[in-house]
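INTERNAL AUDIT FORM
Audit reference: QA-55
Scope: verify that the stored structure record matches its stored sequence.
Auditor: D.O.
Record contents follow.
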Amino acid sequence: MITLSKIARYYTSGLQKSWVLRDMTLDVQQGEFLTIMGPSGAGKSTLLNIIGMLDQANQGEYLFFDEPVHKLKEKKRHELHKHYMGFIFQAYHLIDELTVYENIETPLLYRKIKKEERQSRIADLLDRFNMVAKKNLFPHQLSGGQQQLVGIARAIVSNPKLLLADEPTGNLHTSQGKVIMDLLKSLHTEGMSIIQVTHSEKNAGYGTRIIEIEDGFIRKDMPL
């Protein structure tokens, strides 16, 4: 599904280069639940953003289902991201002015899904996540755990091939975090490919493989 070859990401300040990722080579198979771990500043989120096409590498090759992402123009990358990926953020990133229902609906509107299909998909997710009674509430009326559930519903409503999660339980209490991780495990069992960034060894244990990165390099690659 994903092949990264000698990926590098750096930022320039004058003549100085600040390296975030160096010589990053990685294969991810469809159906994996991959965890990216490492200390703060190791490049975890940068790697996730490059895989998710929210950022671009300065060097190297990136193939996504054999599409050479490193050669694509921004519009084509955006289309791939929109049609194949869902993204869960630590800070939820819900739209404050929209209700729970409308937040979940947003990706379907971008994809021009017909109204009946939108209603059916959203109803299924609201029921699955026990959020039917909250569909007309706004984000500020929800707990952190409930907001993250909405974020996950929004990320998967388009049936993505790949779900990317950046510290999905980072702002949650332990019990709320377990609900989120159990949900991700369930989605993986149903066939969804997942890549998560986490500091939590407990959360990493939900996956099938861990890579540890440090100073922009892969230091360990371990199946579970």
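Auditor finding: record pair retrieved intact. Residues 100 and 203 are 26 Å apart (CA to CA).
Action required: none
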